[in-house]
Amino acid sequence: MVELLRIDERLLHGQVATTWVNAVGPDAILIANDEAATNEMSKLALKMAKPAGCKLAIKTLEEGAALLNNPKSKDIKIFVITRTIADTLKLIKATDQIHRVNIGGVKKREGGKMVAAAIFLNDEDIADIKEMTALVDEVEVRMVPSEPRTDIRKILK
Prior knowledge:
The protein is 40% helix and 26% strand. A hairpin with a 2-residue loop joins strand 6 and strand 7. The model has no long low-confidence stretch (mean pLDDT 95). The protein is α/β, with parallel strands linked by helices. It is globular. The chain has one domain: Fructose Permease. A 7-stranded mixed beta sheet has the order 3-2-4-1-5-8-9, sandwiched between helices. A two-stranded antiparallel ribbon has the order 6-7. The protein contains 7 helices and 9 strands.
């Protein structure tokens, strides 16, 4: 069962490994990213950032969706991390297990405008988020769990 999906350009790093993992309380972390899953150096760095007492799976988007759709996953509390909004939308469309999305860190790209601290969105991101909000129960913006949740729809108005 997916407890939360977080979008973070840096994937698994100190802030996520400590504050978010403590807040979510997962049994396992799933990093769903094609590049990370196929890059041995990325895998090694992510494994080093993994908090103790928590399993870690680094999968492509397709493999991540298969893992989430496996009936055995329903009894496991999973914290999913993706790198981009586009990847997140693809994953959401490939499984019905994701209900809550947290947008944490989206770096500036061409055409991107800052909509919140450390979150830069371009027109494609905004279109993807609008589609995403129709498919899941909640899409929030928060850097750390102690901050109040902000519904992305309030920001995009």
